[in-house]
Each structure stands twice: as structure tokens, then as C-alpha cells.
Design a protein that fits this description.
40% of the residues are buried. By secondary structure, the protein is an alpha/beta fold. It is built from 10 helices and 6 strands. Helix 3 crosses helix 4 (85-92) and helix 5 runs parallel beside helix 10. Helix content is 49%, strand content 11%. It folds into 2 domains: 3-19 and 99-239, Rossmann fold, CATH 3.40.50; 20-97, DNA polymerase, domain 1, CATH 1.10.150.750. Strand 2, helix 6 (125-135) and strand 3 form a beta-alpha-beta unit. It has a 6-stranded parallel β-sheet, sandwiched between helices.
Length: 240
Amino acid sequence: MRLGDFSVLTFDCYGTLIDWESGIWNAIAPVLDRSAVTARRDQLLEAFGRYESAQQSATPDMLYPELLAEVYRQVCRELGIEPADHEAQAFGASIRDWPAFPDSPEALAYLKQHYKLVILSNVDRESFRHSRVRLGVEFDAVFTAQDIGSYKPDPRNFQYMLDRLSERGIGKEQILHTAESLHHDHVPAQRFGLATCWIWRRHGQGATASGRPGADVETDFRFESLGAMADAHRAEVSRG
């Protein structure tokens, strides 16, 4: 199997293209400072992942900024902090400030020359609008949890994406699903028969906000950054 076997890259955004864990940590730091609470980054991210997953299952139609605000309240209470409403709302709105991984814009610009680029994301349309500016490319399609009414890893999200792409004449054999989260993306994508590419951003790191897959997962490709994926494609092209 080669990267050049595909014509469409479907992407997770947050954790793959946008550094959401740094965004989460930076957005919650003010309340930690205010409360003089000491929390390790991996401890906080693990708590965030637990509460986010449960909240997404409980309220699948809740817009992501509202869901983030609720998760913030739950994480704060676990840390022994009484959350203020304005802080929870600010945390929910912080998505627009979450940074792109440094390699994302350049790698996407290169990949755009060779593939259609599609987003399948657990956020809302307005939040993604800000992230798209940071990523610097025009995506061929964007499908959000707001559009679908559920959050990955719910299979409805992948079915929705495949149905919409099928309407454009794109079959699953043309698609390489590209993502960091094994739990949110690779496990459900493989159940739909999609080839997958793991952007292993978290190599060598500890706890994650993305949750654990619950089983061993074998992916078709693995790279430690999107830039490395783009380099691998360049190498394929040069070999002919």
C-alpha cells in the first residue's frame, strides 16, 4: 500500500492538525494559578478526556463550546476548585485560540496539491472557522459534530461523512483517514473499511485527552507528524 493509492484525505482536526492539548492546558492555567492548585499536565488531560467522553455520550447534540464549558466545571470540581461561570464560558470559547501544530500549514499546503482534503471533527462550525484560518488551506468539505448531531467515535459520524462523499462520487477505497486519536478515529474508521494513517503526535508522552482505544489497533501508515507524512509522499513521487 502506498500513499499515492488514495485521492482523498479525511482528517481529524483537533489533536492531528490543531494542538488541542496545549490549547486545553493554556486555557485552564489561569484557574490553577488563581486557586493555587498544583496539577500535572498529564493528570489534567486524563481527567479532561474522561469527562469529555462521558459528556459527549450524554449530550450528543450539545454544541462543543457549551460542552467544553461543562467539562471545565467537572474537571475543576475534581481538582477541588469551585468553577466560576465566566471562566467556564471563556474555556468553552478558547478553541479559537488553540494553536496549529507548527508543521500543519505547510504540510497541508503540499498535500492539497495531490489530494482532496476533508475534515471530520468533533467541534461546531463557528469554532472550526477560526481553526481553518490557522491551518491556511481551503478544505474540500467540512463535517462537524454540529452537522451530524453526535460525536466521534459514534459510527453515525463516519456514516454521515461517507454518505456525503459518496454523493460527490467518492468511494471509501479512495479515502485515507488521517488522525491522531486511535479511540475517536482509527477504531471506528476501520470498522467502516477505511484505510487509516496514524499521525502519532504523542509519541513518547503519557496520559492523553483523547482516551484509550480499548484494544490493539493496527494502522496502514504511521508518522510522527503531518510533515513526516508529506515527506513520505514526496519520496514516493520522486521514486515514480
